[in-house]
Each structure stands twice: as structure tokens, then as C-alpha cells.
Amino acid sequence: MDNYLIKFIEYLKLKNHSKYTVISYQNDLENFQQFLICESISVKDVDYKIIRNYLSYLYSKNYSKRTIARHISCLRSLYHYLMKEHIITKNPMKLISNPKLDQTLPKFLYTNELEDLLLIPDQTTPLGMRDAVMLELMYSTGVRVSELVSIQLKDILLYERKIKVMGKGSKERYVLYGSRLQTLFDKYLSGMRSNLLKDKNNDFLLLNHLGNPLTTAGVRTILNKIIQKGALKFHISPHVLRHTFATHMLNEGADLKSVQELLGHENLSTTQIYTHVSNERLRQVYLNAHPRAGKK
Predict the structure, then answer these.
(1) 80 classed as catalytic
(2) Catalytic site residue 242?
(3) Which of 8, 92, 213, 245 is 20 to 30 Å apart from 114, CA to CA?
């Protein structure tokens, strides 16, 4: 990789960006560098025209608007860094704007779908109990999958029913949980987790079958197996459970600011998407229930 790009990646690490952001940016920059090699131009000599050509190249690959927006964000950060370090004198990203993203409402589970999901893990086995804890924890707290796999035993305040998590930008916050997760914790931590731990020595809450900390990829693999085992007709991802947490909270009367704090959103505007989900649900209820709603 170009030396300037390597230095930029190191800069991101020093600024405590999450490892997922760093990996994503590194992949995007490698793609960008390959394009520049074909154009026979260096990173520091890029101008507005080259950037436009690169974006046209991305569109030709049928990348989604969201993916292209991520590439633009990456390049904007890169050239801001190069300007800051006085490596370049003109910023080629100055006139580049993000593509207008299509508004898509987050997918969430209805209560009956959620209950079907939570009943699938076999709580008589260590792995099944771990899966039950994992599912209930994601739904009860709304944590991101990266936050989920980072939870250690010392982060769980059992008597206060709250958990300390490390969010984006290394920002700590506490999430709350209720009696159902407390019951699962009691069973899991009283012996089931020790069976998974084997002869390993680590403090992480969720473990794989080898006794090592569960990874984000591992969580997604487990969810896919749960879908197959339960022959479910709806898709589940860690973010679907996070969306379900937020949507159910608002549907039951929680205020937006409280949901924002529990989710760890920096801006309230990020949380407001869930009000659209709640409003859409109310609209569907009205259309299905009111005799003069004009159903076809």
C-alpha cells in the first residue's frame, strides 16, 4: 500500500477508531489505490477530475449508494488528513457530495416472531444456554454486535441489572436489562459458562465451543443456525434485534431521548428513524382494523 495510505491507517488507529472502521477504510483504500495504479497517478496528485472518474468507476460496478457514500467518507477523511499534514495544498474532495440515500426503514421483529425466536435455543446444554443469553441480551439491551462480544464478566452489575459496554469511538455507556435476562444469567453463570470455558482463562461473557471469546462472525453464524433449526420464515441479524429493541421501546411509550442514550447514538436524528417505523406500524394497524380505512 502507498506510504501515505499506510500513515493514514496508523493515524486512524491512534485516533481510537473502531477496528471495524479501520478494516473497512483499509479495504476501500486498497480499491482506490488499484484504480490510481491503472490511472498512473499517486495519491497526493489526485484532483477533482480523478475523484469523479473514480466515483463513475464505482457506479459502473453497481455498488449501492450506501457503499459509495462509505467510499466518499473514507476519501474525505484521507484528504482531510493529507491537508492537515501539509502533504497536499488543495483538497480534491472539497466539492464532492454524498449520493442521496434511499430512505429504508429498519427491519424489526413483531412480538410473536420474537417469542418464536427466543424459544429455539435448548437451555439444557451449555451452547444452547449461551445462545439463549446472547439472543435475550441483544433484544433486552439493544447493544451492537461489536459491543456484545466485548462484554466481560466484570462489566455486568448483577444487583443493579445493568451492563457497561464500549460503544463507537471508545465511548462507554450503561445499558439496562430485566428479570428474564437475569434468570438466564443465573443459569449460565452458575455452571454452563464454566463448561464452555474448559481449561481456558478469559473473562468474556460469551464463549465459543473451544472456550474462546465469541466473535462478531461467530454471532452471525449462530443466528443462521438458529434460523435453520427453527425453520423461521424471517431473516435475523444482530442489527434486526437492535432495531426490534428500539421499535418495541417506542411502541410501548419510551421517549426518544432515552432510547437514544440506551442505543448509544451520538445524534438524536439517528434515533428518529425508529419513530418512522412506529408510525408505519400504526398506519398498518389502522388500515387493517378500521372499517372505513379503504382496504382492498
Answers:
(1) no
(2) yes
(3) 213
Q: What is the pLDDT of residue 264?
A: 87
Q: Which three cell numbers stand for residue 15?
A: 485516533
- Is position 84 annotated as part of the catalytic site? no
Spot the catalytic one: 17, 70, 193, 265.
265
Catalytic residue, chosen from 107, 164, 239, 281, is 239
pLDDT at 99: 81
Please name which of 56, 58, 57, 33 lies closest in space to residue 43, comparing C-alpha atoms: 33
State the pTM of this model. 0.66
Nearest C-alpha neighbor of 206 from the set 139, 129, 143: 129
What is the pLDDT, as a whole number, of residue 201?
A: 87
> 210-220 in b/e burial notation, b at 16+ Cβ within 10 A?
ebebbeeebbe
Regions of the chain short of the pLDDT cut 50? none
Active site (annotated) includes residue 265: yes
Strand partners, 172: 166
Which among 164, 168, 173, 220 is annotated as catalytic?
A: 168
